[in-house]
Amino acid sequence: MSTTGPIPVTIGKFEVHGILGRGGMGTVYSAFDPTIQRPVAIKALIKRALDPDQAMVVLERFKREAQAAGRLMHPNIVQIYDYGESPEVAFIAMELVPGKTLHQRLLERRRHDFAQIGSIVDQLLSALEYAHRNGVIHQDIKPANLLLTSEGHVKVTDFGIAQVESTRMVVNNEPLGTPHFMAPELLQGSPATPSTDVYSAGTVAYELLTGQRAYSGSTAFVMRQVMDPEVKVIAPSQADPRIAPELDQAVLKALAKRPEERFQGAAEFRAAFQRGIEATLRRVGEVQAPLPISPETTRSLSAAARLLRHADATGATSSMPGRYGSQASPSPSAPVSSAHKPRLLVVDDEERILTSLKALFRDDFHVFATSNCSHALRFVEKFHMHAIISDQRMPEMLGVELLRRAKITSPTSMRLLLTGYSDLNAIVGSINEGEIFRFINKPWNNRDLKQIVQEAVEIGLTVGERRVLRVNTEARQEMAVLVVDPSYELLRSVKEMLVGVCQIRHALDADSAMDQIDQHPVSIVLMDVEYTGAEGVALLKTLKHEKPGILSIVVTSASDSELMIELINQAQIFRFLNKPVNQQLVRSHLLAALERAQLLRESPELTKLYQPAAAVARPDMPDAGLPPGPAAMPLAAGS
């Protein structure tokens, strides 16, 4: 490492341009990677500047930061590019994020409105949810470790005390971290859990909502307040009366002193916080309602979508105005106003694909098209979309993440992902997090694509503009989860998690599972397909065709890609669980399945629409104007 004055010229292969900041872990430089030709941030430790007694501990912690964050790839987590070490310096090369930390924004006394707060906390919890699933706990969530871009994107950085497999991190009997944002159990030296990060995220949410920290004063005084079970934090609504009770409840539960009284995972806090934000926005009148569609128009549009789908399936011509092909009547009809057409949002960063999709659907739908993910999310906020199509490989954020955020804003919009078999992780993630209606493989077949989109719009119209209510206690208790597991291990876990919530049944193999389903009503099947084998896979396929109202959750190994694709295509799996199984994730997926089962019970017409429909690409049909490739087969996603 050569230097000119206090700033090095290079660090490793990287050209240093300037200093971005200094912190407890060293200096952060703006730099440039001449090999990849991209700007980077370099976090560097000068070894001679370290306390000799602590040098080994600090360097090991620094390397662990690179290892922990380096295994995480998420749009809200700063990406690690490289780690290097020389006799003089240890450094991490990472993504350079333009913008300021949330701490800097708060020091500027910059207040965020409720919608912005909802977005910031949602992105933070999305990152934590992903990190926890991958065995990484941050342990130092605070405003200074949250980077905000000018577009409002959040990037979590500094996994400096993140621990793999939830081991504790204490140096000289003192916990590492910032006491104002640390959970009581960390200050007491206890092991960290996902709920530890939930607490810290709660302190960030509290400060955003109130403009003040949950606990203030000297470090020693704050530590005493945090560890004292009798000291309660003041409800956020005491600082801002506009805050709804639901938001108070979410934040106060996240800040519970006892870990078992908190949300046990980021996903639970995230859902509760968003409900609180929505209630607060309604209370202050900041929600812009979607443009209304009358019941008569909805019924007409739904009937039109069914006619369009039937016409494509049979090859019949349509008498609908503006429809492609010949008309039943020789007299031209007046064009349909876009305001009275179902709404379709198309998102892709390739202009030729946007142009192709707009041309394909403009006669039947009011098409919104954009290559910018932020614009797409604003469209979803302003207008209720009946269906959304997004490409997976978007530069701003992955299509899976875009559709997941769209689901929060507009849960009744049907979501479709343009992707390929090679994006297996994206496919599984989108099923578990985004509830994608269908996957569309590039290059597609126009007729197949039209049929899929028309099905999606018909479902969107059937569900309507309403938000599905959460499952109530009575409805849950009437439902049954069938656990197919010869080892009894999965059954024991489910019984512990869902005791008193719903009925739980058990089958040792596929044959006894079918007997159970024939004898008793079952809403959800939870199956370890590595134990049940080919018979279990065959049962899941049969169930989706014969009893589509039953939802399937599959436990398997992430490496079994062919099996997962087969189940996606032919059994419409509702959720996947990778081994080793995360117990909180099992519970989250089961509760989501109970909600969906209630929707299917209340709207039985949706059950038929969710049945797998094998769409075979026909060579005589026009393609989308994409480069030649293998015949495209749309993938049927989990219902």
Account of the 3D structure:
The protein has 639 residues and is an alpha/beta fold. The chain has four domains: 3-95, Phosphorylase Kinase, domain 1, CATH 3.30.200; 100-284, Transferase(Phosphotransferase) domain 1 (Transferase(Phosphotransferase), domain 1, Orthogonal Bundle); 295-322 and 336-467 and 613-636, Response regulator (Rossmann fold); 473-602, Rossmann fold. It has 22 helices and 26 strands. The N and C termini lie far apart (56 Å). Residues 1-5, 161-176, 287-301, 314-337, 465-471 and 614-639 have low confidence and may be disordered.
Identify the notable features of this structure and list them briefly:
about 650 residues; alpha/beta; Phosphorylase Kinase, domain 1; 4 domains; six-stranded mixed sheet; disordered N terminus
Brief overview, please?
With about 650 residues, the chain is of the alpha/beta class.
SSE topology sketch:
Elements: E1 3-4, E2 7-8, E3 10-11, E4 14-23, E5 26-33, E6 38-46, H1 55-70, E7 80-85, E8 89-95, E9 100-101, H2 102-107, H3 114-133, E10 136-137, E11 146-148, E12 154-156, E13 163-164, E14 170-171, E15 174-175, H4 184-187, H5 194-210, H6 219-227, H7 236-239, H8 245-254, H9 266-284, H10 295-314, E16 343-347, H11 351-361, E17 366-370, H12 373-382, E18 387-391, H13 399-409, E19 414-419, H14 424-434, E20 438-441, H15 446-463, H16 473-478, E21 480-484, H17 489-498, E22 503-507, H18 510-519, E23 524-528, H19 529-546, E24 551-556, H20 561-571, E25 575-578, H21 583-602, H22 604-609, E26 635-636
Parallel strand pairs: 16-17, 16-18, 18-19, 19-20, 21-22, 21-23, 23-24, 24-25
Antiparallel strand pairs: 1-2, 3-4, 4-5, 5-6, 6-8, 7-8, 9-11, 10-13, 11-12, 14-15, 20-26
Helix pairs in contact: 3-5, 3-9, 8-9, 10-15, 12-13, 13-14
